[in-house]
Amino acid sequence: MIPTIRLDEESFQEIFEKARKRIPILYPEWTNFNENDSGIALLELFSWLKEAQEFHLDQIGLEHEAVYLKLLGIERREICPARTVVTCYPVKREMELPEGFRFHAGDITFCSEEEVHLYAGSLRWIRTGCVGIEGYASEREWDGSDIAWKTAIFPEPAGYGSFLELEPDREMEGGKTYGFFFRLWESRMIKRNPVSEGFEPIVGIRAECRDSGSKTWKACELVRDDTCAFLYSGIVKIRIPEETDSFGADRIRFVFSDGEYDVMPMLSQIFLNPVELCQKEEENGRILGEGTGFPDQRFSLERTGVIPSSVELAAEDPEHPGNFEIWKQVRDFSGSLPEDRHFIVDGEHGEICFGDGYHGMPPEGRIRLLRISRTEGSGGNVKKGQIRPGASEEESVTEFDAWNFEDVTGGADRESTKKCFERFETELAKKYSAVTKADYEELLKRTPGLLIEQTRVVETDWEHNRIVAAVKPWSEETCPGLSSGYRNNIMKYMEKKRILGTDLQIAEPEYIRIRLYADLELVAWYRDTEQMLKEKIRRYFEEFCSDFGCTVLYSGLYGFLDGMQGIRGIRSLTIDAAGRGITRNVSGDVFLPPAGLAVLDQIQISVSYTG
């Protein structure tokens, strides 16, 4: 927590009394403390002067706070437009949707962010199978609704040649780019880390299409893959090769080519013709005003919710009337020279500001606003199903229909200075470099694109700058190992986090198989509970014996069973363990190695009932 420094905490009387009490210490001969004494009058004067100075020094305005934020290396977040994806279906005829095409949700305007080719057909069948094997592993009919279903992307276990096939009801033209939005089922116990720059996909896929004339499969260009080979929900775009038959392609498939999935992705829904939208209104070309050449000129944009990064303007050259020169937008004028054509956008007041002649040149002549966009900020976060094509309800579009299949997110208002300081304190608490063992363990869990359940530094050699860390990926398997894709991404991510010269090694978990044998005496009414007892024992192990290097305590398990309702007595309890590096003591406790993880392999319970 950054301490709050307050300078104006003492009143005039407190300052004066504090100074007067020091007189006997500094000058014992001074004995007259009455107000008529000239020295006391001077003390009162200086006390008043100190109080006035502290009051003025304690007054911090917005300009001071902005400078402090700049010194801290952080900036206030400007207003941010909401973004979403809509599906355009059904489409009456194939067409090119231009960039900037307008959609609406009531009075709120959205614009498409790129040109998109709209496919006029629909999907008929979604199948999975394996290249070279007759028939399909699974098959389902596509209905175009938002109803979620759950189908494995590839036949399990996914191997080389496994594929996901889409059969449309009409051919796709050669040379055209078609888009699909794949929504994946997300019901796992742990969230996959977000992808960042430099992430290497842990699996590889390729796109193919079947020529409707020759019935042969041809390679397609994978133009875009936001799913990272079906690890996330997102847009996938493919380009049908131009050398296909005049009839086009009648089937599309995505083929598993290399790597290994940590968890088999489950497909929830496929949407056709995805179009990315941004909640903004654009305006082009108007005269903002006329510069006078005087310093500190300000011009109102006459708009609220202006996106500062979207503003582009040009000013008339006074020496060549009619010629306009592009001016550059900057965050502030602290680095601007007198001859620099710079301006800033005051998003809070909706104004364009120019320099004072010392920092930034004042404009002289007409000022033309080339481009500007405004947004509703958080007001653009509309609910699912509210977006429709067209600029408004009156200007409806008949060629196609569109709707947003998810709630719109991402819209945010301009950040306040207080919120910015709070964000700085939060960011300050995060770990960005690995120094201690705790740093390594936390950063390893944050490796982009991976599902990591546990990490532990199991060996440190500070003298030789060597660290060994064990990593357990999250998986539906009981004893998952680290694939090459996991290792490569972990090492690549930690390369920028570790201290220079430190040798980081990643170790596999050492799974210690635990077998439990118990002979229990139950009360007579405690019937049909063997399965329930096993479930409770498994939950006990998950809670107390699931960490790296933990100790499986005989007394802990014995006390847990002894305290359960319905168990009258424990005749015998045996904990057996198999694995490398384990040790025991006379009490029956099992000590695991630092990289060891206890896996409850078998539970055998024999019961007898007494009245």
Characteristic key phrases:
611 residues, alpha+beta, Jelly Rolls, 10-stranded antiparallel beta sheet, 9 helices
Task: Explain what this protein looks like in three dimensions.
The longest helix has 20 residues, at 38-57. By secondary structure, the chain is an alpha+beta fold. The protein folds into 5 domains: 12-59; 120-272, Jelly Rolls (Sandwich); 281-374, no CATH class; 437-507, GMP Synthetase, Chain A, domain 3; 510-610, no CATH class. The strands form 8 sheets. A 10-stranded antiparallel beta sheet has the order 7-6-9-14-11-12-13-10-15-8, with no helix packed on it. A 6-stranded antiparallel beta sheet has the order 25-3-4-16-1-26, with no helix packed on it. Helix content is 17%, strand content 36%. The chain is flat, with a radius of gyration of 35 Å. It contains 9 helices and 35 strands.
State the gist of this model:
This protein is α+β, with helices and mostly antiparallel strands and 611 residues long. It contains 9 helices and 35 strands. The chain has 5 domains: 12-59; 120-272, Jelly Rolls (Sandwich); 281-374, no CATH class; 437-507, GMP Synthetase, Chain A, domain 3 (2-Layer Sandwich); 510-610, no CATH class.
